[in-house]
Each structure stands twice: as C-alpha cells, then as structure tokens.
Amino acid sequence: MKEQLEAIHSAAKQALDACSDVKTLEQIRVQYLGKKGALTGILKQMGKLSAEERPAMGQLANQVRSDIEQALADKQQKLSERLLKEKLEAETVDITLPGKETKIGSMHPLHIVEQEIREIFLGLGFSVADGPEVEYDYYNFEALNLPPDHPARDTQDTFYITNNILLRTQTSSVQVHVMENQKPPIRIISPGRVYRSDAVDATHSPLFHQVEGLVVDKGITMADLKGTLELLMQRLYGEECKIRLRPHHFPFTEPSAEVDIICFHCHGEGCRLCKGEGYIELLGAGMVHPKILEGCGIDSSVYSGFAFGLGLERIAMRRYNIGDMRLLFENDYRFLEQF
Ligand code: DAH
User: Fold this and answer.
1) What is the pLDDT of residues 267-292, one digit of tens each?
2) Helix (H) or strand (E) holding 246
3) What CA–CA distance (Å, rounded) separates 125 from 127?
4) How many CB atoms within 10 Å of residue 69?
5) For 83-103, how does the pLDDT look when each residue is reduced to its tens digit (9 = 90+)?
6) pLDDT at residue 214 greater than cutoff 80
7) Cβ distance 159 to 166 under 8 Å?
8) Is the pTM of this model over 0.90?
9) Cα 58 to middle of ligand 1, angstroms
10) Phi/psi zone of residue 297: left (φ > 0), alpha (ψ -120 to 50 degrees), beta?
11) Which residues have C-beta atoms less than 6 Å from ligand 1?
12) CB 260 within 8 A of CB 252
C-alpha cells in the first residue's frame, strides 16, 4: 500500500507540474482527490490492514492528501496570477496615442435669442407663462375675437385635428389662459412653438417660434407698449436702434400696430435690404381689446393692457444676418457651430 500511495503522490505531482490551465487542474483534482479518485480508492482499503500497520499508513495517506492539496492550491494561485498578467498585458492602453475629440456642440441661434429675450423681460419684472401647443379653437381664435366666420382666420393656415382642436397658430392663445387664471396686475411673456400649414421656403416654415407678451394693469397706455418694445429692441440690436409703429389691424387689439425697426444696412435712408422703406417689419402689437379682457372676466373700465407677438426666427435672422430660415431647422453642424 505504501508503494501505491507513493506512486499516486508522484503521479499527481507530475500531472500538476505539466498542467497549464484551470480546466486540467480541475480534472487532476477530481482524478486524485475526488470521491471516485485514486486516493479515496486506497483509503477504502485501510480496513483490510492489520491494527499495527494502520496508524502509519493512515498518517502517510493523510500526508499525501495534504501534499497534493497544497500543490493544487499553489498551481491554482500561479495560474490565476498568470491569467491576470495576460489580461493586463492584452488591455494595455497606449497613453501616447492622440485622443479622440468630443464635440460638445453649441447653442442654437434661436435658443440664444430666446434666452436673451427672457433675460430682458425677467429684468423688467415679467414672468414666463406656458401654454399648450395642441389647443382648442376657442383659445387660438374665438376668445381672441376671431369667431368661426372671421376672414382673418384664413391668413393663418391651420392644422386642424378635429373641428375644435388644432395646433396653435399663435402664442396669443396663452394670453387667454393667463387672464382666465390670474387677476391683474399681469406681466408675462410666453415663448413657444406655433404651427401653420405653410410650404417651406426661405422665409416660411410650418413650425416656427413666437414670443407673446401681455401686460394688464390700471392705467396701461400705448406709451408703455412703445417704451417696452423700444427697450427690447435696443437691448437686442444696440442702443441706436429706433422703432416705428404703423397702424394695423389685429382682431384682439385696439388700436393695433405693426412694429418696425430701423434698417441696419442704410439706417433709415432706404436700400435694397429694406426695399426702400428705411425700416424693417418685426412684430405685431396693440392695446388689448376690451372685449378680450371682459371675456376673461377682467373689468375693462378699470384695467387696460398691451400685448405683442414677435417671431423668434425673424429676430434671430436679423440678428445674425441669416438669409434663409431653413438653415435654422436643418441642423447642419457647419452652420450651428458658428454660434
Ligand atoms: N398673434 C399675431 C400673429 O401671429 C401677432 C400679434 C399681434 C400678437 C398683435 C399680439 C398682438 O399679442 O397684440 O400674427
């Protein structure tokens, strides 16, 4: 039996020396120390030995077992160290290689202009109101003094969803929401998307942006409107910027005006850019029609107000000298990274 044990011992050692992967290592463990392994087989025969022989053989068998176990553990350790080393070598990063540049992008010109307008009005004590883009006919038209048969509706080619639900054609709808929910004094702006069923060209897009403004309080006059818009334009386009109010018609303001700014190019002389006018049209405005105030539960004999609506694209295009509105929506990186 002694010879058998020694034979197992040296065979196991030899196998371990030759072993170079964890799979074989496990096979060796099973082969020698497993339940049906060589060593277990020998131990089962212990019973056949005489009482004198047994202690010495038992001791030898235990020693062989712990020796093999130790050798297995050592090998296991060596193999995993080698595996780790190989892995580290395979995953080496060459820190001398040039890095990959990450593009961080830039602010969209519409966003820049909107932020600036917000800042200017927040500084004047206005707050920012929000309204739904999918809107009831009532808020987009009817409450703004545009009943179903009103001809002015035709100028706003509308995307209808149902007979009385549509994509809003103007942020003026927010005026009504605000006046229904808030009592004067009111001082808000409302930037947002609006939709009209227009074909895309250099100056039209079916989706564009407006900023609405509304002030309602006691004693508000046209002078407040003019002063506010003048300040806005001077902040946006420089201190020398002059504005001009021309009579116009909007159903929800009385009187109404179109607001022009002096032409940057000819400073009022008249040139090709302003088509000889000296001024360039920029937005619509007026004194809130008493009917609109009353419709929202505001006493028009006590309160008056002004409102205006400007197109953000137009402001941005003038500001940055952009000749074609499509550039604002195409997301061409070469265009966008200039801002
Ligand atoms: N909503 C108008 C439009 O889209 C612009 C406008 C004009 C807004 C006069 C106003 C206003 O608040 O008073 O053409």
Assistant:
1) 889 888 788 999 988 999 999 999 99
2) strand 243-250
3) 7
4) 13
5) 899 888 888 888 888 888 888
6) yes
7) yes
8) no
9) 103
10) left
11) 170, 172, 212, 250, 253, 284-286, 307-309
12) no
